[in-house]
Specification:
The structure is a single chain. The chain has about 150 residues and is mostly helical. Helix content is about 65%, strand content about 0%. The radius of gyration is 19 Å and the shape is flat. It is built from seven helices and no strands. The chain starts with 9 loop residues before the first helix and ends with a helix.
């Protein structure tokens, strides 16, 4: 499981579990719903948020890319605005160019190995996505006193 980029406080966690996140603050991470301006459906929003987490934590990436991901995840910058920022756009373009160049330089054997490694990684990612979906879609059974009564 990818650790959360930003720590959250207990009151925010309870709000999130009840489906009503509080205002954007530095101590929380945006929710999938907040990415629906660019995502076509909740599944795509989930994947986008997970990708932003990966970028934010990847020390091998350009610091501007990591900053962009952290700013979007924290809610300080809207994702649409992030891609219009020249610094962030240039960092994304440079990374795409690096990926393309690396792919072009691969031998046939390296491509086959990369495909096999990707297939293994994809299976692990799919399992984690399934777990996150189940958590996201799990029904909330009451709150407060009602929840305590059902636990007894």
């Amino acid at each position: 499981m990818t650790p959360p980029l930003l720590s959250t406080n207990d009151s925010y966690d309870s709000e999130r579990q009840e489906g009503r996140a509080g205002p954007v603050t530095a101590d929380r991470e945006i929710q999938d719903e907040e990415l629906m301006g660019v995502a076509q459906d909740p599944e795509q929003a989930l994947r986008l948020r997970r990708s932003l987490r990966t970028i934010a934590g990847a020390t091998s990436l350009d610091p501007a890319l990591r900053e962009m991901a952290r700013e979007v995840l924290s809610g300080h910058v809207d994702i649409k605005d992030a891609f219009q920022d020249p610094r962030y756009a240039e960092a994304v373009y440079q990374r795409m160019h690096e990926i393309r160049r690396a792919a072009d330089d691969q031998t046939y054997a390296e491509r086959r190995q990369s495909k096999a490694q990707f297939a293994e990684w994809d299976v692990r990612q799919q399992a984690e996505l399934d777990r996150e979906r189940a958590e996201r879609d799990a029904p909330v059974h009451g709150s407060g006193r009602e929840a305590r009564r059902t636990q007894r």
